[in-house]
């Protein structure tokens, strides 16, 4: 069992959310083996303790695509965030801005782009899925550009959706799902009032704006299922590269050859990720995949990593293995569900403190000082 602030927020989120939403966040695909590996492999990596090195002026600052950030951490794109907390995307974006880190909005957000960007001063990042409906992709990219989005995160590990059996058990999908969801909401009155009633509209804001009609939660799985595009290849990404002037990050890389292809393609960054164990169950953890990918492409593009990060110590481990920036998925979503914007801010403060302790005791004064020498068994 991993003990961390994420663990406490996970418990609080479980108590607050109707089960269909908690399990949608918490679960992985098929037997959830990769989901477990992500946290377990990371926790196994031993940090090397160093002492008496005068660590008084330690800095966690970083620069990504010419912009300074206070921590080497970004928020990963998470669909349906506005179902876990009232207008959740806005709350998460505000928390990220306050703590000086990037927020990435998911394609399948509840709030549309145009609701989030006016609530923050700094530009946000936007995540796009490869979808059959290229008209939607073009439309949403144009709107992202118009709203001042700087960085595009292009997710490529979902040409088909992995089956998440937990969702069928929990009432997210499966028989009598709609009735079960209403029943569960009634048993979670705090969520039912705060998000269920006052957090409306509950639709996929970016898609509704494009289609000109509301896309309800029930349509979510159907629309996505119909629209994922298994025919996608690197060639299809070229028009996006031409269309998007800003930095482009490819999310969902787990193999050295794919990382090299991303460099050849001209990507500005990759996210080493298995989608938090929600896609191909059985693949290796991000922690295991990262070192050889970093050996192959470090310096050619920015290396981001997610899947399994639950503590500031995990961030330090990932940076020492070669990542430039860590990304948080469930970890921040649990905090958001439990306490909204304040929860995410508090969580990021805890990451900050944990990183400072870990860096002080590994002898790294800046994130550039973190490398394999900071670890024992890699
Ligand atoms: C509830 C949930 C929804 C997600 N939705 C998206 C999404 O819309 N787009 C995307 O690229 N990744 C999505 N992801 C994957 C995350 O961006 C990230 O890769 C993953 O959560 C990292 O693993 P972790 O949760 O163990 O940190 C989602 C993850 C979760 C838990």
TrEMBL record:
Q: Which domain of life is it from?
A: Bacteria
Instruction: Supply the PANTHER family for this chain.
Output: L-LACTATE DEHYDROGENASE, S -2-HYDROXY-ACID OXIDASE-RELATED
GO MF annotation list: FMN binding; L-lactate dehydrogenase (cytochrome) activity; L-lactate dehydrogenase (NAD+) activity
Give the FMN hydroxy acid dehydrogenase domain ranges.
1-378
The answer to whether UniProt assigns keyword Nucleotide-binding to this entry is no
Instruction: Look up the record and report any one GO term of the cellular component aspect.
Output: plasma membrane
* Keywords assigned: Cell membrane, Flavoprotein, FMN, Membrane, Oxidoreductase
Query: Which InterPro entries does the record match to this protein?
Result: Aldolase_TIM, Alpha-hydoxy_acid_DH_FMN, FMN-dep_DH, FMN_HAD, FMN_hydac_DH_AS, LldD
Record's protein name: Lactate dehydrogenase
Q: Alphabetically, which GO biological process terms does the record hold?
A: aerobic respiration; lactate metabolic process
For binding FMN, which residues are annotated in this chain's numbering?
77-79, 106, 127, 155, 251, 273, 306-310, 329-330
């Amino acid at each position: 069992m991993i003990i961390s602030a994420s663990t406490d927020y996970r418990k609080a989120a479980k108590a607050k959310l109707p089960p269909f939403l908690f399990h949608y966040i918490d679960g992985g695909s098929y037997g959830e083996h990769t989901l477990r590996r992500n946290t377990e492999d990371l926790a196994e990596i031993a940090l090397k303790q160093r002492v008496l090195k005068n660590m008084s002026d330690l800095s966690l600052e970083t620069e990504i695509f010419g912009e300074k950030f206070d921590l080497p951490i970004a928020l990963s794109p998470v669909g349906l965030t506005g179902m876990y907390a009232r207008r959740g995307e806005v709350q998460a974006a505000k928390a990220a801005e306050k703590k000086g880190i990037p927020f990435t909005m998911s394609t399948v957000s509840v709030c549309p782009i145009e609701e989030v960007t006016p609530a923050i001063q700094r530009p946000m990042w936007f995540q796009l899925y490869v979808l059959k409906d290229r008209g939607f992709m073009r439309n949403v990219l144009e709107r992202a550009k118009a709203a001042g989005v700087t960085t595009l995160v292009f997710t490529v590990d979902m040409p088909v959706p992995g089956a998440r059996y937990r969702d069928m058990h929990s009432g997210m999908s499966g028989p009598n799902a709609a009735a079960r969801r209403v029943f569960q909401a009634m048993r979670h009155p705090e969520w039912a009032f705060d998000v269920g009633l006052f957090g409306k509209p509950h639709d996929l804001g970016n898609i509704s704006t494009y289609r000109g009609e509301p896309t309800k939660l029930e349509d979510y799985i159907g629309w996505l299922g119909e629209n994922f595009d298994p025919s996608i290849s690197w060639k299809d990404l070229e028009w996006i590269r031409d269309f998007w002037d800003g930095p482009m990050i490819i999310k969902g890389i787990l193999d050295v050859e794919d990382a090299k292809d991303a460099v050849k393609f001209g990507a500005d960054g990759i996210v080493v990720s298995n989608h938090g164990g929600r896609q191909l169950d059985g693949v290796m953890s991000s922690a295991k995949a990262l070192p050889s990918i970093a050996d192959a492409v470090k310096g050619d593009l920015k290396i981001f990593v997610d899947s399994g990060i639950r503590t500031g110590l995990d961030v330090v481990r990932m940076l020492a293995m070669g990542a430039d920036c860590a990304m948080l998925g469930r970890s921040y979503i649990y905090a958001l569900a439990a306490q909204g914007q304040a929860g995410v801010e508090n969580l990021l403060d805890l990451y900050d403190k944990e990183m400072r302790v870990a860096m002080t005791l590994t002898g790294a004064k800046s994130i550039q000082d973190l490398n394999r020498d900071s670890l024992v068994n890699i």
